């Protein structure tokens, strides 16, 4: 299990402005090239340290979720590892098994009913939704998490479907490191900090 840390240094004047606007510091993990879910939403202070681990769980939802909605599962949330498939039958309980067709750095989701996959990761010691697929028809899909995170401000809670487009978020690459530091300056700009 690998632990990742994102340190955020936020200009003190911007802390006041953002808190007055009811924003939270949000972090999400890029999966399938997108970051649709707020994995962590915390109160804004000048210095934050956000942590997560590469431990995963999967579930499904048959609900149609809109931006701003909390991600809620309608099936059991089960542990899953790379190279495995989450099988959602028409009736009965879901299962997770090894799958030779699953990506070595990801998972497969096989649904026999109209549903979306929900991928969870451990954020701040708790399992939280990090990805909601938009695949609604019965079938099989691969899900591949990346070593990239996104950080942004939004009036949201952990586990909500983000109301912000990915273009409003700042991407942070963890490909060659487990710790990154970003800064948000008085002009409202994000940058990596060394």
Structure report:
The protein contains one helix and 15 strands. With 194 residues, it is mainly beta. The chain has one domain.
In short:
The chain is mainly β and about 190 residues long. It has one helix at about 10-20, and strands at about 5-10, 25-30, 40, 45-60, 80, 85-90, 95-100, 105-110, 115-125, 125-130, 140-145, 145-155, 170-175, 180-185, 190-194.
- Shape, please? globular
Mean pLDDT comes to 92
Q: How helical, in percent, are the residues?
A: under 10%
Over the alpha carbons, how many angstroms does the gyration radius reach?
17 Å
Largest sheet: 7 strands, mixed
Strand content: over 45%
Number of alpha- plus pi-helical segments: 1
Which quaternary structure do these chains form? single chain
Low-confidence stretches: none
Topology, number of strands: 15
User: What's the SSE pattern?
Assistant: EHEEEEEEEEEEEEEE
The termini sit apart by 25 Å
Q: Tell me the count of domains.
A: 1
Structural class: mainly beta
